[in-house]
Amino acid sequence: MGVLGVLFLVLFLLFSFCAALLKWNEVRYRKKGLPPGTMGWPIFGETSEFRKHGPNFMKTQKARYGSLFKTHILGSPVIVSMDAEVNRYILMNEAKGLVPGYPKSMVNLLGQWNLAAVTGSPHKTLRGAMLGLINPSMIRLHLLVKVDEFMRSHISDWNDKTIDLRQKTKDMALLSILKHIAGLDKGPISEAFKPEYYKMVRATISLPLDLPGTSYSKGLQGRKKVVSILKRVIEERRASYRSAYCSDDDDILDTLLKTDKDSKFLMSDEQIVDLIITLLYSGYETFSTTTMMAIKYLHDHPHDLEQVRREHLKIREGKGPQDAIDWEDYLSMKFTRAVIYETLRIESIVNGVMRKTTQDVELKGGETNFDTFMYPDCFTFNPRRWLQEHVNLEAQKSFMMFGAGTRLCPGKELGVVEISIFLHYFVTRYRWEEVGGDEIVKFPRVDAPNGLHVRVSNY
Ligand code: HEM
């Protein structure tokens, strides 16, 4: 046999081996009652196609197999549902065994006590503690004034500068949460914390392979340092107490540490650390990406920008330059809220929630944010759709941008407050122009990989 013949034989064997592997993996998951779909390679599944094409991968599979299909991504076999009715059923039925099923990488990096990872009574306890910290009345009485002070001071010197909104909103998101949680300002602790935290966040959407140099392995190193910094902060805080009683100046960490020994919300240090990481992770990207994209949409829709600006200038009319936003002012920001919701809808900032089954579940099964019945002309940015008198979209059953059921986002109002207050100071103080040339990608997360640069000047 000549060299060509050997080469042909090797290629043939390789091809047959790959085909057999793919077939074996398909057969392994061929179980009665499962929806159609493909499972890709053993272990890796279709992760690389998913990472490369993201939403388009989902759309292609949907076009091939319908709104309910199976695949294998990020180290687990999964069933994807792009049907609003099925999604609502899933979110409302944790008690029937449809519990959160975030990928192993996410759970290992965010911690075993992360709210999204726990179920049953630990979930009830931790969720109760979380709601106690960031519910609307806590925001009205304690957090709003802190958010106001934080936002106004962080954007006070942007005149005549080129600002990378991506970096600024990310830094602000992290610093703002660190400030609410542990009173930490910009300084050595937050500077040491930042790179480790970013490593950890980046690795949450990766294959859980702990090999040197992989994103996952760097993420695990990041988590180790994040945990050690938070533990040190907790120890120092404990050592500083003269009284175990709560006071009005307490931040979230004080509230957690001073919890009465008889309280049902008493937590171990491990649980406190993971709760802080939950707060950081959940509030970080939702604030930074939504704010960056809302500014992008307002820039591209000057008519909407004018309406937002009018709303905020009206609020400032009765106030001196140093007067803070109060709860009534916030409630009057109706168009701003509509802009935030429309940005969340059209950008799908949270592009899916994950569940796993603990028992067999029968489902009777569109991309819910682009349901043409609920959102006519669904690909157009139109904040006014949220202000219709005869239909309250937020109250519809298929409105699930903040989840539903027992996992409904506890930070929804805090998130909207933070973005609204940022927009308040940004649009009343400044005008801005995009420098241009920056790219926005939608996957694995909505992002401007090289930044979103704007030239800012006084309004
Ligand atoms: C404004 C933008 C936000 C959006 C669009 C959003 C969206 C969501 C969604 C869809 C879920 C459900 C996840 C699931 O069912 O598995 C969720 C859960 C959660 N969110 Fe948010 N969120 C936002 C802001 C925040 C903020 C600012 C915080 C806290 C600081 C927060 C904390 C949480 C937590 C802790 C959970 C888990 C709840 C549980 O498992 O019981 N979120 N969020």
Automatic annotation (TrEMBL):
<keyword id="KW-0479">Metal-binding</keyword>
<dbReference type="Pfam" id="PF00067">
    <property type="entry name" value="p450"/>
</dbReference>
<dbReference type="GO" id="GO:0020037">
    <property type="term" value="F:heme binding"/>
</dbReference>
<dbReference type="InterPro" id="IPR036396">
    <property type="entry name" value="Cyt_P450_sf"/>
</dbReference>
<keyword id="KW-0349">Heme</keyword>
<dbReference type="InterPro" id="IPR001128">
    <property type="entry name" value="Cyt_P450"/>
</dbReference>
<keyword id="KW-0408">Iron</keyword>
<keyword id="KW-0560">Oxidoreductase</keyword>
<feature type="signal peptide">
    <location>
        <begin position="1"/>
        <end position="20"/>
    </location>
</feature>
<dbReference type="GO" id="GO:0016132">
    <property type="term" value="P:brassinosteroid biosynthetic process"/>
</dbReference>
<dbReference type="InterPro" id="IPR002401">
    <property type="entry name" value="Cyt_P450_E_grp-I"/>
</dbReference>
<feature type="binding site" description="axial binding residue">
    <location>
        <position position="409"/>
    </location>
    <ligand>
        <name>heme</name>
    </ligand>
</feature>
<dbReference type="GO" id="GO:0016705">
    <property type="term" value="F:oxidoreductase activity, acting on paired donors, with incorporation or reduction of molecular oxygen"/>
</dbReference>
<dbReference type="GO" id="GO:0010268">
    <property type="term" value="P:brassinosteroid homeostasis"/>
</dbReference>
<dbReference type="GO" id="GO:0005506">
    <property type="term" value="F:iron ion binding"/>
</dbReference>
<dbReference type="GO" id="GO:0004497">
    <property type="term" value="F:monooxygenase activity"/>
</dbReference>
<keyword id="KW-0503">Monooxygenase</keyword>
<dbReference type="InterPro" id="IPR017972">
    <property type="entry name" value="Cyt_P450_CS"/>
</dbReference>
<keyword id="KW-0732">Signal</keyword>
<comment type="similarity">
    <text>Belongs to the cytochrome P450 family.</text>
</comment>
<protein>
    <recommendedName>
        <fullName>Cytochrome P450</fullName>
    </recommendedName>
</protein>
<dbReference type="GO" id="GO:0016125">
    <property type="term" value="P:sterol metabolic process"/>
</dbReference>
